[in-house]
Specification:
- By secondary structure, the protein is α/β, with parallel strands linked by helices.
- The protein is built from eleven helices and ten strands.
- The strands form two sheets. An eight-stranded mixed beta sheet has the order 5-4-3-6-7-8-9-10, sandwiched between helices. Strands 1-2 form a two-stranded parallel ribbon.
- Helix 2 packs across helix 3, helix 5 runs parallel beside helix 6 and helix 5 packs across helix 11.
- The longest helix is centred in the C-terminal third of the chain and has 19 residues.
Length: 290
């Protein structure tokens, strides 16, 4: 029985050198097409991640990222590939966040959500399909990411996040992205991130409206934002959520995540960006700990 190519080891320095030479030969004007990337994976018995890491280390850009390069440098692309990000919640916001992080090239995603798809998810949740009803949301996310970017590894955790299991679930991540719909759980996430010294990108949606902010350790931004507001669910329970609101807010969250991971640009630290899509208005509020 033939052994699948992805089971071969990839560690010897001589093999790495040969792979480097091969990638230099196969690149055209600094771009490595997908077909040649796949040939390298088979020829050297290595993973898609390993080929991309080797190529980027040589200054060669996998072709899937060529539209990134005027915004994200090759060095930045390598940083993203080596990054590990947790997405807490894989529904309306989380599905789009996972999709965009994978397409951006973030190499490791930890996706946490206890739920399975129901019919009311079909109007807005990216991974929700009639064929997926009853399926775990994190399992659908894993399947989607494997299909769209094989260099990205998604760890699906079908668990309810809380302050007890949070430190274990977020172990080793550099950044957490809040895609929850529960204020108490969101505050537990903020406290765990504070204890682990992890930045947290927060997003929330309801009807035509959404908000985004980024919390760094020591800021206590979410504690300030939600002080005195303790309902289990937010206002989205009354306003609902159409298809477009999660896509808009998720895009802003991923932009914040990219800036945090690369240490570039100006984040929404201690600032809350509120979006009213009905009136097409944006409002910024300064957040200070009380």
């Amino acid at each position: 029985m033939a052994i699948p190519w992805h089971c071969f080891p990839f560690s010897a320095a001589a093999e790495m050198t040969t792979l480097h030479d091969y990638l230099r030969e196969q690149a055209t004007e600094g771009i490595l097409p997908w077909t040649r990337q796949r040939r390298a994976m088979v020829r050297f018995g290595c993973t898609c991640y390993q080929v991309e890491e080797a190529a980027l280390g040589l200054g060669i850009l996998p072709a899937r990222y060529q539209r990134n390069r005027e915004t994200v440098s090759i060095e930045d692309q390598l940083t993203l590939l080596r990054s590990r990000v947790a997405v807490i919640g894989c529904g309306g916001l989380g599905g789009y966040v996972v999709e965009e992080l994978a397409r951006l090239g973030v190499g490791q995603l930890v996706v946490i959500d206890p739920d399975c798809f129901e019919e009311h998810n079909l109007n807005r949740q990216l991974f929700s399909l009639p064929a997926n009803l009853g399926q775990a949301k994190v399992a659908a996310a894993q399947k989607r990411v494997a299909a769209l970017n094989p260099a990205v590894t998604l760890l699906p955790l079908q668990e309810t996040f809380n302050s007890d299991n949070g430190p274990e679930l977020l172990a080793g991540v550099q950044l957490a992205v809040d895609c929850l719909d529960s204020i108490p759980v969101r505050l537990e996430l903020a406290e765990v991130c504070e204890a682990l010294n992890i930045p947290l990108v927060h997003g929330a949606i309801a009807g035509w409206y959404g908000q985004v902010t980024t919390q760094f350790p020591g800021d206590r931004t979410l504690q300030t934002l939600y002080q005195g507001r303790q309902p289990v669910k937010g206002v989205e329970q009354q306003l609902g959520n159409p298809s477009f609101t999660p896509a808009v807010i998720a895009g802003l969250e991923v932009a914040e995540a990219c800036k945090v991971l690369l240490g570039k640009g100006e984040t929404l630290r201690r600032r809350l960006l509120s979006i009213d899509l009905r009136l097409m208005q944006l409002h910024e509020t300064t957040l200070t700990e009380s």
